[in-house]
TrEMBL record:
It is found in: Secreted. Residues 33-255 form the Peptidase S1 domain. Its EC number is 3.4.21.4. Residues 1-18 form the signal peptide. SUPFAM superfamilies: Trypsin-like serine proteases. Belongs to the peptidase S1 family. PANTHER family: PEPTIDASE S1 DOMAIN-CONTAINING PROTEIN, POLYSERASE-RELATED. One of its GO terms (molecular function) is serine-type endopeptidase activity. It comes from Parnassius mnemosyne (clouded apollo). This is trypsin.
């Protein structure tokens, strides 16, 4: 039953990339927001767009600091500093913004692409991001997200499935679902873990292809990373990596790089 459900759901075409999604890719793997609205200019200053070297958007991200972007592991698997760039400071996929090359990619060591667990990654840009009214970092959470929390999702995912990517950044207000309820809904389809957050409001509202890696925000802090779901906004919960579960990993990776950089400078000085 599990296999037949996946095959029937997954024989679909991704308009943005022109390929048939493999069986485990009924999950977002390049999603977008359904039922949202245009974000105000400068209203989501922490939003990043991960793009190919041809400037084609494939995933979202969150600015954590002047050098680090938080995103999903499935967005960066197979990518290198030679195959992607980061754009910040614009709501448009066609114009504006500041472009940064990439020098390093950190993928969680226990990322599992079959079940989409530990779906978290860090991207380091080559130069300090210049902050402004349109470009600002977002804080990590200092508390866990509970069921019934008010959330804000943003991204350039598809407006419908099948459909096209929007030019303008989209945003939508959502509500978190308990892990237990989410597990029950996805029973027999795909496991849901305590290290994930689910959201569900109503059919016709949610994430879609192109939103992957993007920020889910609660009280001005990034609490989730768009990970997977049933495309798109069909009444099933969207599933996000729970950032609170990975704070130590995130901070350790960022501090490791900082320490390494400082030691290199000391050696040069000596």
């Amino acid at each position: 039953m599990h296999t037949s459900i996946l095959i029937s759901i997954l024989c679909i075409i991704s308009g943005s990339h022109g390929y048939i999604l493999p069986v485990n890719d009924f999950y977002f793997r390049n999603p977008r927001i359904v039922g949202g609205e245009n974000a105000p200019e400068g209203g989501i200053p922490y939003q990043a767009s991960l793009r190919s070297m041809l400037n084609s958007h494939f995933c979202g991200g969150s600015i954590l600091s002047s050098r680090w972007i938080l995103t999903a592991a499935h967005c960066t698997v197979g990518k290198t500093n030679r195959t992607m760039i980061v754009v910040v400071g614009t709501n448009s996929l066609l114009a504006g913004g500041d472009e940064y090359s990439v020098v390093d990619i950190k993928i969680h060591e226990q990322y599992n692409g079959n079940f989409i667990s530990n779906d978290v990654s860090l991207v380091k840009v080559s130069a300090d991001i210049q902050f402004s009214d349109r470009v600002q970092p977002i804080q990590l959470p200092n508390a866990n997200t509970e069921s019934g929390a008010d959330l804000l999702l943003s991204g350039w995912g598809r407006l419908s499935y099948p459909g096209v990517l929007p030019v303008q950044l989209q945003m939508i207000n959502l509500v978190s679902l308990s892990v237990e309820d989410c597990q029950n809904i996805y029973q027999g389809i795909n496991p849901v873990y305590e290290t994930q957050i689910c959201s569900l409001t109503k059919k016709g509202e949610g994430a879609c292809h192109g939103d992957s890696g993007g920020p889910l925000v609660e009280d001005g802090k990034v609490v989730g990373i768009v990970s997977w779901g049933m495309p798109c906004a069909r009444g099933y919960p969207d599933v996000y990596t729970r950032v609170y579960s990975f704070i130590n990993w995130i901070e350790d990776k960022m501090s490791e790089e900082a320490t390494s950089y400082d030691m290199t400078k000391l050696k040069i000085i000596n």
